[in-house]
Amino acid sequence: IPAHGFRGSAGGLSPLPYNRPMILKTLPKALSPSERAHILSLKAPLESLYRGYDYRARVQRDPVSLVHPFPRAEDQEVAGLFAACLAYGRADLFRPKLVQLFEIMATRGGPRAFCMRASFDAIAGDIGELKYRITRPHHIAGLAWGVGAYLRELGSLGKAFQQGLREGDVDIGEALARFVEGIYQRLEVEI
């Protein structure tokens, strides 16, 4: 368990690091003068929205807030993937399931170590009967096992995702599909 404890309530979370989102400093040269003018006209209203938005209050309700109690980046990337995968439906229903899953993972050395366990059966045994809506225990265990295989092979989920990026991709959707397919390809069990 992280040194400051893992609790799913806002009171148990450490201060969250916030960096301002990257702002486009220069506009692409391929824009027409009217497109450039339109984009530049949005700057002031967007800056106003940015300054007035309470990110800290918003993130406390977001599943990403459950990722930050893990102090190591390699645990955060794994926890973030699980948070993203289980964050569907009502937050008051999925948050307790994520807290339960992260508590299980914390007892096994953190999310990364948990996913790198020696066998699917060991992971499934730790998951027990944990389920959320249509996501059954064997789905959670399968994701953990597939993630573990990626980690053993490439060292990080970031590298696994980067492996799926292609020069001609229009957006990250295709790389994301390759990332998910890579998890399925690494499974040794039918989920």
How would you sum up this structure, described in words?
- This protein has 191 residues and is mainly α.
- Helices cover 56% and strands 0% of the residues.
- The protein has ten helices and no strands.
- It is globular and about 60 Å long.
- In N-to-C order, the SSE pattern is HHHHHHHHHH
Biggest pleated sheet? none
Beta-strand percentage?
Answer: under 5%
Q: Kindly state the percentage of residues in helix.
A: 55-70%
Low-confidence stretches: 1-20
Q: Structural class from helices and strands?
A: mainly alpha
Describe the global form: globular
DSSP helical segment count: 10
Mean pLDDT: 83
Number of strands: 0
Rounded radius of gyration (Å): 20 Å
- Terminal Cα separation, in Å? 29 Å
Concise synopsis of the structure shown:
This protein is mostly helical and 191 residues long. 56% of the residues lie in helices and 0% in strands. It has helices at residues 33-41, 43-52, 55-60, 73-86, 91-107, 111-115, 120-127, 137-154, 157-163, 173-185.
Summarize this structure as a short list of keywords or feature phrases.
191 residues, mainly alpha, 10 helices, disordered N terminus
SSE blueprint:
Elements lengths: L32 H9 L1 H10 L2 H6 L12 H14 L4 H17 L3 H5 L4 H8 L9 H18 L2 H7 L9 H13 L6
